């Protein structure tokens, strides 16, 4: 299949690009490079042995979308493009609604007009809000506690309405839990600008001496060791989940499907720190700090529906997540000194 990846130069998009090429798909990436760089395409070529076209453009630009659909015989879209920083979304809500919601609406209009009606959308476990039970299955009530989360919920609602309006649509909403880790090659991974918000890149930078110590946000949660518990999923497992979802919606009669992509296993912040230290033979100094606003104690998925309907199950454990994050950190350091 010929697949357009919006946000294909980003962290998750680049790993999915590699997985799709390995599965024999033909792809084109579309990205405004607001949170990525064009150099990732060379590294993808080194990984896959195939040059992958990158079109620099914005999903809010209808003309640019029409051109990419006109130039390439696109049959399906995987839609990663979006802004994703929770704190930033609180400070700049209009930017988030514009980029994420208006951007998605523009993409849907362009798709509809050129009769491309197969879509995989990057949603998030953030749409479950504060969990009322664990593990979280897809029937869990949804809510949002910040503008970023509200953009994901609004888009999910938009997709439900679109799917209900026309039975030709085949839409998969994938709710990611906590993606971490990097490609085995060490060539692509997560490299946030500035000080990382997320745990794993923060741990890597502390281990590398680029940051002094990790602040563990809260040591008094009702969890086994008092620190927050999350469902960390290796980005390569997540990438395989996209390939499986795309295959599934090509066969299904259902216009809309929703799947959790998680492992079902929760780990605490201190579990992550200790695993990172053990696997990589490094030290990660930390101190227990106050809770972070808006954080919840525990969040982990029931991945059963994805296993049953997609035949997909995460297979990589914590050690692989920590080892690949550290290899990528090394590669970044090497790239910066070359
Ligand atoms: P990322 O920032 O690395 O990738 C997003 C890409 O989209 C970037 O390359 C960016 O330049 C591009 N982009 C942003 N706005 C655009 C626009 N208007 N037009 C064109 N390109 C645009 O983020 P990621 O971690 O790879 O996340 C991908 C998707 O997955 C996002 O939608 C995010 O909300 C979702 N998600 C991420 C996580 C996570 O923890 N990483 C968890 C759940 C869901
Ligand atoms: C994980 C755990 C923190 C940093 C966020 C978004 C969510 C989704 C994934 C996109 C928590 C603790 C973290 C640090 C710490 N993204 N922590 N010190 O908050 O589960 O989810 O990313 O959709 O929407 O909210 O992930 O990696 O920020 O935090 O102690 O410096 O690590 O308190 O328990 P989170 P995270």
Please tell me about this protein's structure.
Helix 7 packs across helix 11 (318-337). The model has no long low-confidence stretch (mean pLDDT 97). The chain is built from 11 helices and 14 strands. It has a domain at 2-182 and 232-262 and 302-314: Rossmann fold. Helix 1 links the parallel strand 1 and strand 2. The longest helix is centred in the N-terminal third of the chain and has 21 residues, at 93-113. The chain is α/β, with parallel strands linked by helices and 338 residues long. The strands form 4 sheets. It has a 7-stranded parallel β-sheet with strand order 3-2-1-4-5-6-11, with helices on both faces. The protein is 42% helix and 17% strand. It has helices at residues 11-22, 40-48, 62-71, 86-91, 93-113, 147-165, 199-207, 235-251, 269-280, 304-310, 318-337, and strands at residues 2-6, 26-31, 54-56, 76-79, 118-124, 170-176, 178-180, 214-217, 229-230, 232-234, 256-261, 267-268, 286-289, 298-299. The protein starts with a strand and ends with a helix. It binds nicotinamide-adenine-dinucleotide and UDP-4-deoxy-4-formamido-beta-L-arabinopyranose. The site of nicotinamide-adenine-dinucleotide has 27 residues, from helix 1, helix 5 and strand 5.
Any chance you could write out the topology, listing elements then pairs?
Elements: E1 2-6, H1 11-22, E2 26-31, H2 40-48, E3 54-56, H3 62-71, E4 76-79, H4 86-91, H5 93-113, E5 118-124, H6 147-165, E6 170-176, E7 178-180, H7 199-207, E8 214-217, E9 229-230, E10 232-234, H8 235-251, E11 256-261, E12 267-268, H9 269-280, E13 286-289, E14 298-299, H10 304-310, H11 318-337
Parallel strand pairs: 1-2, 1-4, 2-3, 4-5, 5-6, 6-11, 7-10, 8-13, 9-14
Antiparallel strand pairs: 9-12
The structure holds nicotinamide-adenine-dinucleotide (NAD) and UDP-4-deoxy-4-formamido-beta-L-arabinopyranose (WQD).
């Amino acid at each position: 299949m010929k697949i357009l990846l919006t946000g294909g130069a980003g962290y998750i998009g680049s790993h999915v690009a590699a997985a799709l090429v390995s599965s024999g798909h033909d792809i084109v990436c579309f990205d405004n490079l607001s949170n990525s760089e064009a150099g990732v395409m060379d590294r993808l070529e080194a990984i896959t042995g195939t040059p992958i076209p990158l079109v620099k453009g914005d999903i809010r630009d209808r003309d640019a979308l029409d051109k990419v659909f006109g130039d390439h015989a696109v049959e399906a879209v995987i839609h990663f493009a979006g802004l994703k920083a929770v704190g930033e979304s609180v400070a700049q809500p209009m930017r988030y609604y514009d980029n994420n919601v208006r951007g998605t609406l523009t993409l849907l209009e362009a798709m509809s007009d050129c009769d491309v009606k197969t879509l995989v959308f990057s949603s998030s476990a953030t749409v479950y809000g504060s969990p009322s039970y664990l593990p979280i299955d897809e029937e869990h009530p949804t809510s949002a506690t910040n503008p970023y989360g509200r953009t994901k919920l609004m888009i999910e609602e938009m997709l439900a309405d679109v799917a209900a309006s026309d039975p030709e649509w085949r839409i998969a909403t994938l709710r990611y839990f906590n993606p971490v880790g990097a490609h085995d090659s060490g060539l692509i991974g997560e490299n946030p600008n500035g000080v990382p918000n997320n745990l794993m890149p923060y741990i890597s930078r502390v281990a590398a001496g680029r940051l002094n110590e990790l602040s563990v946000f809260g040591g008094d949660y009702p969890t086994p060791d008092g620190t927050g518990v999350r469902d960390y999923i290796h980005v390569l497992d997540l990438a395989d989940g996209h390939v499986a979802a795309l295959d599934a919606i090509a066969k299904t009669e259902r216009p809309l499907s929703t799947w959790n992509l998680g492992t079902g296993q929760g780990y605490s912040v201190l579990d992550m720190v200790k695993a990172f230290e053990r696997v990589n033979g490094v030290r990660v100094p930390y101190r227990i700090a106050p809770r972070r606003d808006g954080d919840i104690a525990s969040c982990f998925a029931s991945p059963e529906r994805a296993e049953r309907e997609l035949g997909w199950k995460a297979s990589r454990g914590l050690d692989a997540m920590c080892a690949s994050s550290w290899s990528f950190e090394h590669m970044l350091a090497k790239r910066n000194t070359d």
